[in-house]
Design brief:
mainly alpha; Rna Polymerase Sigma Factor, Chain: A; 9 helices
Length: about 180
């Protein structure tokens, strides 16, 4: 079934098309939610709330501006960020110049880890680290965009990313050492 048919069916509030849209993207979007969540239950909540938002906002989707998959992803990320902002994330402000930009290159180590192990490592990060890491490294947001989305300074975004990377590095090293 094409995206156009899915969208048109959903806009008619036909539950068969809504289920088909959900089924088409649920696995990929659940994995996205798992990266932002501290656990499976929170990820399930993010997914459910995100898809409710998708169905509410579907009239805003414009196929000329991008794919349905990309639009659904953006809606879910925005909904997750909205929920996290409600929890009033706490970020530790620090001068980014205090940190080195150099991190050891361990691409070989990461290739030895499964996707599940990587997601579990990301989930163990403190919430502020996890959110900034996902937005920057996975979603491709700039520090300026992250700062605007989260209501923090660019330096806070940079320092949270740096701390997240170091925490992940330590976790990977611990995992490899054990």
């Amino acid at each position: 079934m094409t995206d156009e048919l899915l969208v048109n069916g959903c806009l008619r509030e036909d539950s068969r098309y809504q289920q088909a849209l959900y089924d088409k993207y649920k696995v990929e979007m659940f994995l996205l939610c798992m990266r932002y969540a501290k656990g499976r239950a929170e990820a399930e909540d993010f997914l459910q709330d995100g898809f409710m938002q998708v169905f509410r906002d579907l009239r805003q989707f414009d196929a000329n501006k991008g794919s349905l998959q990309g639009w659904v992803r953006k809606v879910l990320v925005n909904k997750i960020l909205q929920q996290l902002r409600k929890k009033k994330l706490q970020f530790v402000c620090a001068d980014v110049s205090d940190y080195s930009n150099q991190l050891p290159n361990n691409e070989d180590i990461l290739s030895m880890l499964s996707a599940k192990e990587i997601v579990q490592l990301i989930q163990r990060l403190p919430e502020g680290y996890r959110v900034v890491f996902n937005l920057f490294m996975v979603e491709g947001y700039s520090h300026q965009e992250i700062a605007e989305q989260l209501g923090v300074s660019e330096n806070t975004s940079k320092s949270q990313l740096h701390k997240a990377r170091h925490a992940l590095q330590r976790s990977v090293n611990d995992l490899i050492s054990s």
